[in-house]
């Protein structure tokens, strides 16, 4: 009986470790992606090396809208040419659905908003929180991975890398 319980416990522990091993976290290289923006621009993360990249992984939801508006504040207060801000609709919504969602914002987003129709970013980054915010340094390394965060905190953190 005890052998069986220990075996089950170790199996579960192993599975939990394996499932968490695939989640890129702070200190890991950011998995590359190439996506198209709602305006038709192709953007590859690897092409942004040398710049700090602030990424919002969003769905069509109110918390994601609020985070996008916080990103606008960051853009307004940190007008550095070394900072790129990207919003990514990671839920695979259609361009039409995303455009309708963006029209509902109290102000226009002032950063590129990308579509992820096959949810590759969602899968490669093992997104669990809505929204998920990433800070990727100029060398392509994830420096932060957090759920919703206000602009003031982001600005303080981003200044370390600019």
From the spread of the alpha carbons, the general shape counts as globular
CATH architecture classification name: 3-Layer(aba) Sandwich
Q: CATH H level: which superfamily?
A: Glutaredoxin
User: What is the succession of H and E elements?
Assistant: HEEEHEHEHEEH
Concise summary:
With 162 residues, the protein is an alpha/beta fold. It has 5 helices and 7 strands; from the N terminus they run αβββαβαβαββα.
Descriptive account of the structure:
The N terminus is likely disordered. The protein has a single domain, classed as Glutaredoxin. The protein is globular. β1 and β2 form a beta hairpin. By secondary structure, it is an alpha/beta fold.
Jot down its keywords.
162 residues; alpha/beta; Glutaredoxin; seven-stranded mixed sheet; 36% helix; disordered N terminus
Topology:
Layout: H1 2-21, E1 34-37, E2 42-44, E3 52-58, H2 62-77, E4 83-89, H3 95-103, E5 112-115, H4 120-124, E6 132-136, E7 142-146, H5 151-159
Parallel strand pairs: 3-4, 4-5
Antiparallel strand pairs: 1-2, 1-5, 3-6, 6-7
Helix pairs in contact: 2-5
């Amino acid at each position: 009986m005890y052998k069986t319980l220990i075996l089950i416990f170790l199996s579960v522990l192993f599975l939990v470790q394996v499932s968490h091993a695939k989640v890129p976290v702070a200190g890991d290289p950011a998995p590359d992606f190439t996506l198209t923006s709602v305006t038709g621009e192709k953007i590859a993360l690897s092409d942004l090396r040398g710049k700090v990249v602030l990424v919002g992984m969003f769905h069509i939801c109110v918390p994601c809208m609020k985070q996008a508006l916080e990103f606008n504040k960051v853009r307004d207060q940190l007008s550095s040419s070394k900072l790129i801000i990207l919003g990514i609709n990671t839920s695979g919504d259609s361009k039409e659905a995303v455009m309708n969602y963006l029209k509902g914002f109290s102000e226009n987003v002032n950063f590129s908003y990308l579509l992820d129709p096959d949810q590759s970013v969602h899968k490669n980054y093992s997104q669990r929180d809505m929204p998920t915010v990433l800070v990727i340094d100029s060398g392509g390394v994830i420096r932060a991975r957090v759920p919703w965060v206000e602009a003031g905190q982001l600005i303080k953190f981003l200044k370390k890398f600019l």
